[in-house]
Batch of 4 targets.
Target 1
Amino acid sequence: MNFDALFQPLCFLTAALLVVIGLYAVIFMDNLLKKIIGVTLISDGVNLVLITSGFNKIVAIISPDMFEDGVTSATFEGLQEFPEFATQAAFPLPSALVLTSIVISVSIFAIMLALAIRLYQHYGSMSCSTIFKEVEE
Amino acid sequence: MISGFVLMGYIFMFCALFGSVLALIQRDLMKAVILIGLEGLAVAFLYQMLRAPDVGITQAILGAALLPGIFAITVYKTRREEE
């Protein structure tokens, strides 16, 4: 049983479970802060999917015979002269995208928490059912 | 066989999932905020193991320090116990 080869699939599984737990919190939790915690979990899960999909992707680009549907690109042909680097490097595009996504998500959570504070000051409760009841009246 | 590096990765995956589940079942919201910081730190170490160290550093600063900070400010401004 080779546990090292299971690292990338288990990372995908972790990301999927984070998204599922976050969706459960957003839909079924009553407290407003717990709902915002669920949104942070969804954000972490999606970023983890993107980073995990770029793990060891350069190996697939350089030596396509190791994988069944190898993707070849003429841009990375020069990397065949550096096999030690090529077997250990990750694909750099998803990390560049996720770096921006993390910073933007933190500012979005700051705005969400500020709106939650304003809701509490206006209605006097953090419970969603209480707020909805007071809105209907 | 399993190497120590990959075993640490599995431990961090377990920490991320278990911390997020524990954060959602807390009645005290400050404990939930601290557990969200634990989850962000585990995900940051996981980014480091997936060979994206720049994303890991950014997640460790923003997701494990700044985000629980602004959550704690929100808990301080509103009520601490979940009704």
Note: Residues 32 and 106 of chain A are 17 Å apart (CA to CA).
Target 2
Amino acid sequence: MAGSSFVYVTFIRTSPDELWSALTDPEFTKKYWFGVHQESDWKAGSSWKLIFPDGRIADAGEIVEIDPPRRLVLRWRNEFKPELKAEGYSRCVVEIEPAGDAVKLTITHTMDRDKSKFIDAVSGGWPRILSNLKSLLETGRIVLSA
Amino acid sequence: MMKDDAVFRALADGSRRQLLDRLHAKNGQTLGELCQGLDMTRQAVAKHLAILEEANLVSWKRQGREKLHFINPVPINEIAERWIGKFERPQLTALSDLKRKLEGKSGD
């Protein structure tokens, strides 16, 4: 297969609407995403930014597709590490599907180049973010703080 | 949905761990690719993959007619944090307490 990608899946005991708001609400995001939050008006074609707690821009891009509470597609580029920024834009697809008494959350992150350093970098972060998100939604507590 | 038992059962087999190693080395492989160079029949690999999928350790995507398999480390991370997170949290709390104290001093 050309390019680099990963597909991360977790099952969370919540509703699609709650999960959608957990994924897009800035204050809620900070609780499980190690203090960062997103800035966007969440419309197709709008800009999207990931902001560090100190206000620096971590990553930026735009909303490619948005269909609450089912599907979000982002064009996503790193902004704070030159060697990662040089790789250009990745594509991140967020999918939410009901699965019994839970919701299946799938994150597919792809870069159109082999051995992408960007994909390596974000692939380590997502499992921790997803574990925190699951724990926060199911128990009201996070596992690891920022 | 709490599938810890399924995760441990899936991991308690050398062939399945080998398949995860192969996906870790090269993510997004078809069944055919995964079979290459392995001392297992295609049926055996398919069966092991099904157990890994059931435990949510392998995810997959269709690309055209192909089914690509990916390692999904999220359940392993959940198991790790169940026991490791507890030991990191006091340190993190201690650090944030220290930060608050120092910042409170200079700020006031």
Note: The beta strands of chain B are 58-63, 66-71.
Target 3
Amino acid sequence: MSEVTAGSVVGAVPRGLFRRAGTRLWDFLPAVAVLVAGVGLWQVLVTVLHVQRFLLPKPTEIVSALTGNWHVLWSAGLFTFREALGGFAIGSGMGVLVAVALSRFPRVGRALLPYAVAANAVPIIAFAPIMNNWFGLLNPLSKMALSAMICFFPVMINTLRGLTSVAPESVELMRSYAAGETAVLWKVRLPNSLPYLFAGLRVATVLSMIGAVVGDYFGGSTQSLGVFIVNKSSLFVFDQAWAAIVVASVLGVGFYLAVGLVERFALRWHVSTRGTERP
Amino acid sequence: MTGGPPNASPDGAPAVSIRGMSKVFRGRGRGASEVRALEDIDLEVHPGEFVSLIGPSGCGKSTLLRIIGDLEQPTTGPVLVNAKPAHQARVDGDYGIVFQDSVLYDWRTVARNIALPLELAGWDRDRRSQRVTEMLELVDLTGFEHHHPWQLSGGMQQRVSIARALSFSPALLLMDEPFGALDEMTRERLNMELLRIWERSRCTVVFVTHSIAEAVFLSTRVAVMSARPGRIRGIVDVDLPQPRTNETRVDPRFFELVATVRRRLRGMEDDAGVVVTGEAEA
């Protein structure tokens, strides 16, 4: 970089990915400490208070159930994760499309939005048997449909917010270049909505996993994590049921972090990623 | 950059021609009152001129600029730009606009912000990058093409905004208090830079400001406006020698003209020796 007007530059571009990665690890330390302390306390309390195994197994028992049934649990986890991923993709995709349509036709949006909110208030579990009936008990689509329904709303409402909260001057600037609505959408509204979209997607990652597991509860493939939990619970093998819950959580958190990583990359320009300091 | 703007007006036609234009804002809802923002506006700007609009806040100077730029519709009266309706001029890409806020897109680098109008006009990548290089040189920002807007100071952001507005060589540059949010030092430096850019690009500039000194220093003519309803009270010819330099700011003639504009703003009579033409001009 040449220093043509060095005096007016506020600073240099942030560099040193490793330094940043190190800082991030340091940031996670308190959370890890809480996890270790929580699990430790759980172990101690269950041991000291002689809590029955079927009420709450010790973390060590859950870990041994986890390692003992690793292959079954992992393949069941991946099976359900695929259902969640499918539902996430369908639901989020629909959410973005509907948000774009509603932002383009605000009158339609005002007419439909109250019903979208009302539909979101319907307990999604109620749809699980219906989806099983529509798509078939063993068809992954029935779980994806449920997952998609939960993912749709947060993604749609966030994206809509991002598409419409554009500074008027940004649109006027485009108009001064005689740009049409389509160009405004691609060059201003969609980029502007990305931070909002990602906020919605992050919520949707966790919800999609919940949707898939809940869908399994109402009947599904024996290869799925939800059915595994139901079966082990009915057999009173709670340490394995807990192990399955751990797998579900780990996959959900992993999914969340993966989307967060994509977000950091896609939004390098945004305040949330670059920090508050002007580099 | 070589040559004049390709979108220049046909020979002899004024860059901007407004006759008896008015603008009324109608409030929404019952009992809403009408606001007469502009009344009886006559304004003619010739190609290559630098005309400032100055007046108290609420005099409609920004509205007038926005009407010239077809961002707002006049209630009555034609607005011709390069001998065609303002709407057609906008579609033809005759305008470069600079707002008070730089309105740069955070997700685009400096280079891609400048290239935005070129993308919209369908320029290919090579032509775009060549022009961006030229524009960065013009606004003295070479080396910052890969920076993002938030990595620049306010003054630099506004220079990027000017580079973007001029990237496609529009015939008319519309500026709405572009330096209003900057400190005095930066403002004076950018004033000089703007004049240099204006000389090199040979475009016509319509410039809204509330700084009398800025208007006199930059302009070939200053249109003084009054508020409620917004009218052009008079036009002051600025006969300071070109090119303007830092010496211009201490020229006794500069102070005379500043005083004249100030008196005009207060609605006082003009002193002798200053050419002031009223609404009936041209």
Note: The two ends of chain B are 33 Å apart (CA to CA).
Target 4
Amino acid sequence: MTATPTLTRLLAGPPSKAGAEHLEAHRARLGKLPPAGDRREIIPILEASGLLGRGGAAFPVGRKWRVVAERSQGDAVVVVNGAEGEPRSAKDRVLMVSRPHLVLDGALVAADAVGATEIVLYVGIEHRDAHRVINRALGEREPELRGRVRLVAAPVGYVAGEATAVVHFLNTGDARPTFLEQRPHEAGVGGRPTLVQNVESLAYAALIARHGDAWYRSAGRGQTRGTALVTVSGAVPRPGVREIEYGMTIGEIATLAGITGRDASAVLVGGYFGGWATLDEVLERPLDPADRAPDRLGFGCGVVSFAGPDTCGVRATAEIMTFMAGESAAQCGPCVFGLAAIAEATRRLANGAAADDDLERIDRWAGQVQGRGACHHPDGAIGLLRSARAVFADEFARHQARGRCSVAHAAVA
Amino acid sequence: MNSQILWFATRGAGIVSLLLFTAVVVLGVMTSVRWQARQWPRFLTAEVHRSIALLSVVFLAIHIVTAVVDPYASLGWISAIVPFASSYRPLWLGLGVVSVDLLAAVIVTSLLRVRVGRRAWRAVHWTAYASWPLALAHGIGTGSDASAAWMIGIDAACIFAVVTAVTWRLLAGRPSADLPAVVAAIGRGSSREPGALR
Amino acid sequence: MVDVLRLDPIRCDGYGMCAELLPELITPDDWGYPVIAPGPIPDRLLDHARRAVDVCPVLALRLRRAPAARRPAPVSTPAGASGR
């Protein structure tokens, strides 16, 4: 399998090792943004481009901006979502640290398009480099920003980046998701129409504002056009964030990351909101949000994490389910108790101490948890659990029978 | 109306109000601790609590109206609403007025629950725990039957019922599940970022 | 337009009174929280549904009007944790 060179757009320019790109270099490379008046016309261009959101839901960006613009009376709010609470994702912070001005460009374009007078940069408090770089970038652009932009530290936590949680935090300091009748685009920060958009989505919008929708659509191998950032991790010689064309296959990504032969047996696609797959079965599968294969791999937030043959799938599942249970916002009974029960049972399974009906109960609880929270956190966890149950079926059966695991591993705490 | 009849009505309605109010408090506690028995489901406790509460308002109204219109007692309407404004035993009567004022807030916020919001509703509802002893004190301080053996017996029974209920409530701790504690307990066992895939 | 039951899972505290009053449509899960059957409420159960909504001590259950022939809700494309 030959490696296909990746197309770089966001990551074009100096390598990320070179650090943050300063304003002058950014303008020298890309030219200035179109004037503010023209930016108001961007929404149909975004819609024509087919740009999809990069936060995990792949919602069409143009439509999202239109919906906010329609409700805005010049008082909308743009929230730049750089929370990145997904543990195996690094793309947002890499983007913020190396191309802060591209992100800021996107925020300004969005603000003019939806009629917003306020821009909030919501960056995970643990991403210290990103905070430092963005602060400096804001300083470089102050005259143009006219005090409309503020940088806010998002709390640590998996659900802190969920749209209603973001709005809730900005309104009350509480980063837990809410269950209100009104969605953020209707009434969000301060009760005003609010656009919550991922940093990568905004960066692409900034490029489309300069180069147009035809340019954007010129990349991409399948139905979904354009390029996207992925974070490759796990049992790979060359992990890291890369920009790929939509439609690149998982096999090609594996090769890019340096995997040869039997290095990896399973792959986690999309993050903890995504699912596992047996690597051999998905080598030819394109990474494309439009690819709706029945086993629900999806694209999610672009995490592609490879597991070596010495990874116990049951153990990995136990660790991830424990993490997800611990990251619950603790507001809804089924999520709290369901994920806790599943986490405990998978830990027992992993440690070879399963009760007779543990596997059966895990499957029953999965059905009782799905769709019964105020946000989609439990749904993501259950989706991941179900894919693990399918991909690692043999391992689970062996562990339920309290037989020896095919992989030697330490007990899960 | 004959002052004697009004006076009997005031006392009678007052005593019935106290008994009903006591029952309401006990049922309220039973609702919040989620008590149930084989033939007595939880919803029944909640519904009976509300029904008796509304019934007690009727008797309370009779108690207040008959007292105010009674020419012998010479109370104006003001003294029924503003505490400690009466000329007759202002302190003891006033306690009853405070009790009724609190109760009025509880009833109104409960009828308008949907608009008031949970936190405000709860805060006002908790003042019922203050309203009850005030009603009891009012009865003991102003009641003409207070020193009669049967009245002392009634007062004692009501006190016993409420003290038992409140103790039960305190011992039950937090009847609703402590979700944050369950999640925090998990958090302590897991690492923030599960081990890298091997 | 039909009537549907809508539960606020954050307000819900597992009192279980709704399940007692409307067992045809509401069953408790392993932890006492209500699992509500989706879809419109049959006419014969409407009064029971209203009573269930009324009894909830925390106002977690509501009756809502919804358009009758509804497209089924899209299979949740869950919100990514990185935000959108």
Note: The mean pLDDT of chain B is 88.
